[in-house]
Amino acid sequence: MISTLNGALDDIFGAMKLRRVWIALAHEDIGDQHRRTTLGPLWLLVNYLAFVGTFVFVFQPAGKDAAGYSAYVAIGLMVWFYLMEVITVSVSLFKREQSFIEGTTLPLFVYVMRLTVQSAIRAGYAIAGCIVILLISGPALTTAWLWSLAGLLLILLATPAIIAIFAFTGAFFPDSEFIVGNLMRVGMFFTPVFWVNNGQDPIQTYAYNWNPFTSFLEVVRHPILSDEFPGHDFALTGAFTVAAWVIALMLLGRYRRQVVFMI
Amino acid sequence: MVSVKLDNVSLVYKLHEKLTLSAPDRRMNDTGGRIASSGRKQFVQALDGVSFELKAGDRLGLVGPNGAGKTTLLKVLYGIYEPSEGNITIDGKVDALFNINIGFRPEATGRRNIVLRGLISGWTEAEIEEKMEEIIAFSELGDFIDLPFKAYSQGMAARLAFAASTALEPEILLMDEWISAGDASFQEKAKRRMDELAEKAGIIVLASHDQSLIERVCTKTLTLRHGRVESIAMTPMEAA
Question: Which residues are B47's β-sheet partners?
Fold first, then answer.
């Protein structure tokens, strides 16, 4: 147990010393994805705004104020797209990094952090779009917004652990790439991203209360929209984050040397 | 003083039968070595009790048929594979030339690719700066160095990869086949660079099927078969 933990921490500290490598590679990844396009990475912002606009236009509940619903959807989609991308892309992480894993001695966590930075940069464009929508749609700027910022940071803290878990899952179980991709696409409809739980629909209420993604969304959304600290959601998200890190450390400590034989 | 000592090193790894919906015969990875079974589990014995010792000035040639364990042994020495048994004691900085194209990005300029390669190789910013002009000069790319890598001809790309990969100051150098690149005149230059590299390195371990190359470069030859050391002997000098 102790040696497993030490192995994982060695890998993580080794990766932290090489932070210039994963930061540089992540920037190159973002640049490559949008090279030769006129807008470059601004397409990420355009995509996000197009999705929010479409969801607000199509799903705005009758009788509700458009501005409030816009803010609700804007934050919901920002967090959901981030989580969806992180999880679906992580599953094939070690397969994509195969030539590095088989040809260098870089710690595995370098690849985890490369994807973390890449996802955070991509999310930055959605956050910019979200802030613009929030300023236009009118929720009052209060100190509660700082809780939303804390919620975002908590999600960011959970990200490397989530990436590591799904990357190992993908290495052990190649079919998970497609299973996870499909589940995340379907999962959007079972998560309060664009629908509002009014407590009258039992399926919605069940999904709201038992879907772990709900708390990840609410730690960011609730403070801005309700001007309150969502203690329950913070506690749940914190617990998920701790659990994810424990699992990630175990996987990293136990299987980091096996990955090269599994990919 | 650089040295390498392997004492009864074995590498056995479990064949992970991947949890997949594929047909049973497609569940295994492609592997070399000998496959052994223990109950329902299958293991690959890639190296079996390998022992040898190298000191400064030694140039070891690894020979043997495909699947004998040459590349595996190099990767164990480099630290990519962790041996399952035995001890490895290495004194000195180990560099490897396995895949000279690793990390090169088609959209980045040649100059940026040198920076990225340097970072991946663990060079400091000062080292990258110091080696940059030397790599550019050696690769003979001139103004092309600031164009995207994908705009390079095959020969130019190979020259840059070769120049960046061999800008090392190795104490212990591991090579899976002797590398070369470019047209006839560059190949001559590349050969001289490799000779210099071999000269500078305290210890070289080179895996190759080219017997004349082994005879030209190496002082010792280790023959592997099925992951075991079949023989280790002084290399007969190549006839002039």
Answer: B11
- Contact A98/B at CB under 8 A: no
Which residues in chain A have Cβ-Cβ distances shorter than 8 Å to B75? Answer: 102
Q: Report the distance separating Cα B194 and Cα B117, nearest Å.
A: 19
B3-93+206-234 folds as Rossmann fold (3.40.50)
Tell me how crowded residue B117 is: count the other CB atoms within 10 A of its CB: 25
Q: If DSSP codes are grouped into helix, strand and coil, which group holds residue B30?
A: coil
Cβ pair B13:A175 closer than 8 A: no
* Domain chopping of chain B, boundaries: 3-93+206-234
Kindly report, residue by residue over B195-218, the tens digit of the pLDDT. 887 777 788 899 988 888 888 888
What confidence tens digit (pLDDT) does each residue in A188-208 have?
999 999 888 888 888 888 888
Q: Name the minimum distance, in Å, from the CA of B55 to any CA of chain A.
A: 23
Quote the DSSP letter at residue B109: B
Structure tokens at A160: 């490397």
Collect all residues of chain B within an 8 Å Cβ-Cβ radius of residue A24: 115-116, 119
Question: Do A24 and B13 count as a contact with CB atoms less than 8 A apart?
Answer: no
Q: Are B55 and B1 in contact (CB under 8 A)?
A: yes
Cα dist from B92 to A177, A234, B173, B201, whole Å: 41, 50, 10, 10
For residue B115, pLDDT over 50 is answered with yes
| Pairing outcome for strands B172-176 and B94-97 | parallel
pLDDT bucket at B20, cuts 50 / 70 / 90: low
Mean pLDDT over all residues of chain A?
A: 91
- According to DSSP, the β-strands at B41-55 and B34-38 are antiparallel
For chain B, positions 36-75, list CB contacts with chain A under 8 A.
Answer: 75
- Residue B116: which of A28, A99, A257 has the nearest Cβ? A28
Q: Which residue is listed with tokens 């804007």?
A: A74
For residue B160, give the amino acid letter.
L
Sorted by where each begins, the domain ranges of chain A are 2-258
* Dist. CA A227–CA A233, nearest whole Å: 14
- List CB contacts of B49: < 8 A, sequence separation 6 or more: B8, B9, B10, B86, B228, B229
